[in-house]
Amino acid sequence: LVIMFVINWWAALLTNVIVLGLFIYVSYKKPDVNWGSSTQALTYHQALTHTLHLSGVEDHIKNFRPQCLVMTGYPNSRPALLDLVHTFTKNVGLMICGHIRTGYRRPNFKDLATDQARYQRWLLKNETKAFYTPVFAEDMRHGTQYLLQAAGLGRLKPNTLVLGFKNDWRDGDMMNVETYISMIHDAFDFQFGAVILRLKEGLDVSHIQGQDELLSSQEKSSGTKDVIVSIDTSKDSDADSSKPSSKATSLQNSPAIQKDDDDDGKATT
């Protein structure tokens, strides 16, 4: 400060007056601004630098990691699939939870961004080290191709596609079965490995009503600890389009798809 006045006293005085004026203005107005911290800025810079350095490293046995693209749909709708992959990617590998939404109407990208932030918080609060990545696509196969091509960053890209087993392949629509098989072929074409998880009772728990309420209650701070969850045992009843649907069991162990209805605009198939 002294050197400033020695070099040019009037410029130094003007600078200090401006800084003091800005300080008084900010202190008086108290704007709702997240100023962040220098530590967070440094973390971002280091992550970006290391990611760029990794892009020039060739693959070898010492840097191979299981990096999985898991077709979970909503992360809380297939906990078994999520937990299985998390057991061998935790702390050592990348896990991306893929969610394909299909529909012929104009997609609502605002809702997509809201859900992306919401379910990413859900993963963090459940201490699941994964990234939630939803996409809009014309159909399930195209959505899978989009994720296989674009998911990840640099060397931090998936190398394994993880799917749930299609239990009704005998009785389901042959077009859906063909799409399911084509997804596996696409993974091989992109030089991906493939993992298919099969459980006798299935993987999809989205038929349990109250998933959204449970998610909202976990996002709140301290409140009532008891959560009431009701189970809808009827197979033919219509589910609320704002929640993952249980109407179709054909994809209960394959990626969840949210499809636009004529009425509400969104439903899971």
TrEMBL record:
Broad class of the protein's primary localization: membrane
Compositional bias ranges of the Acidic residues kind: 260-269
One GO CC term on file: apical plasma membrane
Region (Disordered): 214-269
InterPro entries: AA-permease/SLC12A_dom (IPR004841), SLC12_C (IPR018491), SLC12A_fam (IPR004842)
Biological process per Gene Ontology, one example term: cell volume homeostasis
Transmembrane region(s): 6-28
Superkingdom in the source lineage: Eukaryota
Compartments, as annotated in UniProt: Membrane
All residue ranges annotated as the SLC12A transporter C-terminal domain in the record: 78-258
Topology of the protein relative to the lipid bilayer: Multi-pass membrane protein
Amino acid permease/ SLC12A domain: residues covered: 2-69
GO molecular function: ammonium channel activity; sodium:potassium:chloride symporter activity
Keyword tags: Membrane, Transmembrane, Transmembrane helix
PANTHER family: SOLUTE CARRIER FAMILY 12 MEMBER 2, SOLUTE CARRIER FAMILY 12, CATION COTRANSPORTERS
Name of this protein: Na-K-Cl cotransporter 1a
Species per Swiss-Prot/TrEMBL record: Epinephelus coioides
